[in-house]
C-alpha cells in the first residue's frame, strides 16, 4: 500500500515519545490474547499494505490499549491512504566515531579518501549480506534488510553485516595509521520496526529509522549493539551481553540494548515398527535361512523399492532370524557421500570389526587391523598390505606396500577382501546384510557379487536398495520389487501402531501416505502431539519444536550423514555433553534416531536425514560442513573431508583433501579413482580466490594428475600434456621456482615421448638456463640433452651428455627426486639405458650389455613407480639389443618378461610395446630356421602391423622408426615389398617431421631392398652409409656398406673396409663377423 509523500516528511520530523512504555523484551512479547505487541504491529503493517485499514485500526487499538504511548501504533493510525509503503524492516546504522573532530585535524583530500574507503566498505558488506543502503549522506550510513528482497533471516544478516563492518573499518584504520598517522572507528546499531518506505526516493522514515541511529550511538567504538526488538531474533546466532538501559534523545525512558560480542560457532537451534503386508518376503527369508543352515542355499535376496517402502524393515527381519540362531551377521551399507569411493562399504565393515574409531591413530589402526586378520586365521604378512589401503592407511605407518599398480593392485586387493569376508563368515550358516546399495561403490558391489557366486551354500545374502540398476546381471538372487501397502494393510499397520486411531484418522493417513510404511509410521508417531498433519514433514517438525536444542543436533547430524559418530557430533554442535545426551534421548524416543554400533546413531531412514537437512539455511549448512570437515581433518577418510569442505565453500581446503584422497586411491591401485579425485581438486581450485598459493596448489594437482596419466598411458599422452602446459602458464618465467622446473622436466619428457623434438629442444634450453640456481640438477638435464641428441642421430653429443649425467650423481639425491617426481622414469638409470643404445650403434655389444646391467641394478634399488618403470624400459632396450644381434630366442624371453612386468604393475604403454616386440620377434624367428614357416611369419607380421598402428594412434612416437624398420624387415622377408616400401617411407617421413633421425640410416638401407631400379638402390644405400658415418653410427654404416658391396662388388670394397675399421676389433655383433668373412672370401676369390 502506498501513502502520500507529505507523510514521509512528517515521519522524518517526528520526535519519539513513548511515555509509560517499557522497552524490555518481556513487555514487547507479552501475549495480549491476539498475540504479543510485536506480533500485533506486524499484522497491522501487513493489513495496511494489503489495503485493509479496518483490520489495521483494530490491531493498533489493541496495542494502544495495552501500551497507551506506543509511538509505532500511533504512527500506523496516522498513516494516510496515499502512495508509499509501510514495511517492518531491520535497519542498520553505521556512524564514524568523532568524524567532525577528525575532519578538522586532517587535510580535506585525505579525509575524503579515508571516508570514501569507509563508505565503499560498508556498502559492499551490506550488499553481500542481502541488504540495501538507502542513505550515504555525511559519515553515517543507513541500510535496510528486508527490502527490496526479503529473507527469512534479515535480522541475522544485518547483525552479521555489522560485525563485518567493524572488522573492515578496523583494517581501514590500520592502513590510515600507517599512511597518515591517525585512526578511525565505527559504531553500528541495529533496530527493527515499522517504517515509511519511500520507494521513489529510496529512503525510509519513522521511529524505527530514528531509533536505529540512536542505538548506534550507544555502541562503544568498533562494536555492534542491537535494540531489544532485535535481540530475541538473533540470540540463536550471536553471543550478546546485556547492557544497562541508557537514555537516548527523543525517548523518555532508558532504552534496553545489547552489545553483540561475536557470532556463535554454531547456532543454538531449536523402535522399529510392525512388519505388515510382507508375508511372502518373510516366508522366503525363513525358508532361505533354513537352507543356509543345511548348507544348500544357492540364491541371495534383493529387496528393491522407493524410499520408505520397507526395505530396511525386511533386512532387520533377516537379522532377527539369524541372531536367534546365534549366527554370524555381517552388515554393509552404502553412503551417499561415498558412492564414488572404492570399497568404502567394506572399509566401514572392517573398521567396525577391528574396533577402529574415527580418531584412532594410524599406528593403532594398523595394530587393530593386524589383530583382526590374526583372529580370522589369515596371514598378516600377505593380507595386511592389501587391506590397509582400503582403510586409507599409508605404508609409512607400519607395512610394506605391494609392488603393483593400477588394475593389478586392484585385483590383488579385491582378492584379499573376498578372502577376509569369507574368513569372517566362517563355515557355518551366516548372514550378510547389505543396505542402500544404490549408494555403494562398484568395487564393493563386485565383492558382494563374488560372495554370491562363491557361496558354499551356507551364506544368506540380503541386499536392499532403490531401483537404480545396481544389481549384477549374473548375480544368483531372487528379487522383490516392493509395492506400497494396500488400504487394508495400511489400516492394519495403523491399528498396530496406534490402536485408538479413529476411522477419520485412518482415512486421512491412507490419503496422505499412499501406502508407504515409513510415512505411516511417522504420521502415526505425531498423532498424540499435534494431531493429524497435512504432510509427512509436519509431525517431525512438531516433535522438533518441542525442544529448541533438537534442531541444531538434527541439522548437524544430517550434514554428517545417515550414520552419526557421537564424538563427531559433539564437536559440531554447540551443546554440552549432557544437553546433547538429552536431545539424543528425545530423538530416539521420537523414532528419529536409533543406536548404531557402540557409540553412534543413525537416522531410522534416509528420508529423515533428508528432511533434517532441509532445516538449515544454506549459510548455516555451509558452516556445519566446515565444522565437520575441520573435525574430520585428522581422519584418514579424505574423500569425506573433501566433500564437507566443498559444501562449506572452503575451496582450497577441499582441493587439498581431494588430493589426499587421490593418494589413498592410488595406494589401492585405483588409478582412475585417483585421477577423478585430482580432477575434483582442480574443480575446487577453479572456484578459489586467485593468488600465488592457489596457483601453486593447482600446479601440484596437475603435475600429479599428469603422473597418473603417464604411468598408465605413457607420458606421450595429450591429457598429461594439457596439465603440464597449464602448469607452465601458472608458473610464469621464474626458473628459480621448483614447481616450474618440475613442470618443464615433465613437459620435456612428454615432448621426447611423442618425438616432438623441436619443442623438446626449447624445453631443454629453458631447463639449462635454470641450472644457475640448481647445479645439483645438472645430471638430469644432461640426460635429457643426451636423449634428445641421440634421437636426433647426434650420437657423439648424446654420448658425452649421457656420460656426464652418470658421473658424480648421488643416487636418490633429495632435490633431484623433488623435481623429477612428476615423471615415472629416473634420469641416471635412463642415461645408462641410452648409453647402451649408443654402444649398440657403435657395434659394441659388450659395452651395451654393461650399460644395461648397470641400469638394471639401479632400477632394482628404486622405489615404485620409478623402479619397475625403469626395469620395463631396460627390458625393452635389452630386447631391442638382442634383435639387432640376431639373438631371437633371448629376445623372445625378454619381450615376454617385459609383458609380465607391464601387466603386473599396470603399465599400459609398456604392455603395448611388449606386445609389438613379441609379434615382431615371433615373425623373425619363424623365418630364421631351416624350415621357414612363411604362414606363421605373415601372421606375426599382420599382428605387429596392427600393434604399431595402435602405438602411432597413441602418439607414442619415441623409437617408432625402429619399429618401422623391424616391420619392414618382416614385410621384405615375406615378399611384401610394396608394403615394406610404404612402411619404411612412412618412417622416414615421420623422422623428417619430428627431427628423430637416429634410425634413418637403417630405414634407407632396408628401403633399398624394396627397389627394383638399380639407381634407386644405390641412392638409398649411399645415403644410408654417408648418414651413418656423419652420425657416428659405425654399425649402421657397416650394414649399408655390406649391402652395397653385395650389390656392386669390388667397387664398394673401400667403403666396406673403412666401415669395418671403425668398428671395435672385439665387437661381437654378427654383422661385423659377416662383413669380415665377406671381405676375406672376396680376397680369396681374387687370389
TrEMBL record:
Limits of the Guanylate cyclase domain: 90-216
Gene Ontology terms: biological process: cyclic nucleotide biosynthetic process; intracellular signal transduction
Cellular component terms per the entry's GO annotation: cytoplasm
UniProt keyword list: ATP-binding, Nucleotide-binding
InterPro entries: A/G_cyclase, AAA_16, Nucleotide_cyclase, P-loop_NTPase
Domain of life (superkingdom): Bacteria
Molecular-function annotations in GO: adenylate cyclase activity; ATP binding
Protein name as it appears in the record: Adenylyl cyclase class-3/4/guanylyl cyclase
Organism the protein comes from: Mycobacterium sp. (strain JLS)
